[in-house]
């Protein structure tokens, strides 16, 4: 495997900052961090300290750094309530001799907030699952199909076996709900969260109705909203808001929900839309984390239910819009409607076929998803 897509940027930042790496459980954060040590290091390296290991925890609390190590990894340290002050002290005392890498499978960017005592001392990166361009510089239809079928998490994607994928998925959900959730949130109704998690893949592709979920689970609206926020912090799902424009009667409050592991979505059409969402969110996070632009992923929908699946927004201005179709067909009428009434400069309609026609700047470019990844330059 080639190095992960953010490795070079992290290498550059480690010269004068700590680096925080967040992302879903089992997305490859530890493997990436260990590769930054060089020399084929693994979890037995003295430079790797895991908060979940009792001996490592004692060294961390005593602020004992391993000898003769120029880079040190702290894994899951955000489970310690006072970790920010601890890392601040370690960095201030050792920044000229040691570089620090902090990783976390829960929403590290959330838990680093709330009285952040580390301004100017770190850069934050979000590691995503594999996508078409990261796995191969010239993605083809076979690669896209494998990603669609097995998702982008390294183990099930690389194994490519349905039996392994099913077992991995069950174990992954259990570890997040019964380990990460227990460590980071005070929730008693874990069985209800498990039921909600199993239902969420069926919500992909349509505006999310929290009211419907509250009726299904027979709990209050506020409770479901809190649970969804917890799932977002644990990198199980994410929601995107609508894009508004003056000349359209855009919906304002509805959001759409997607899963970090799009292979959980049973139906092929919504699963493809979720996979495209994952690629675009990765693009937004990559540009934001490496270049500092304010990036957003949104969708367009008006009160007459015309919709385009995604709009990528950079520094408050729309960069391009993307409509997803599992089959090859002419541009969706909504693309033309919104092109005439918004300042979105480029419209794409991606599909899983081979046809490629149109022009993104004067009409709607209809093209295979693999081609779209290459031409837009997704990470």
How would you concisely characterize the structure shown here?
With 379 residues, the protein is of the alpha/beta class.
What helical percentage do the residues reach?
40-55%
* Helix segment tally: 15
Number of strands: 12
In terms of structural class, how would the helical and strand content be classed?
alpha/beta
Number of domains: 2
Radius of gyration: 21 Å
Tell me, what's the shape?
globular
- Neighbour order of strands in the largest sheet: 2-3-4-1-5
What do you see in this structure?
The chain is α/β, with parallel strands linked by helices and 379 residues long. It folds into two domains: 120 residues, Rossmann fold, CATH 3.40.50; 245 residues, no CATH class. Helix content is 40%, strand content 17%. It contains 15 helices and twelve strands. The strands form three sheets. Strands 2-3-4-1-5 form a five-stranded parallel β-sheet, sandwiched between helices. Strands 8-9-10-11-12 form a five-stranded mixed β-sheet, with helices on both faces. Strands 6-7 form a two-stranded antiparallel sheet. Helix 11 crosses helix 12. It starts with 6 loop residues before the first helix and ends with a helix.
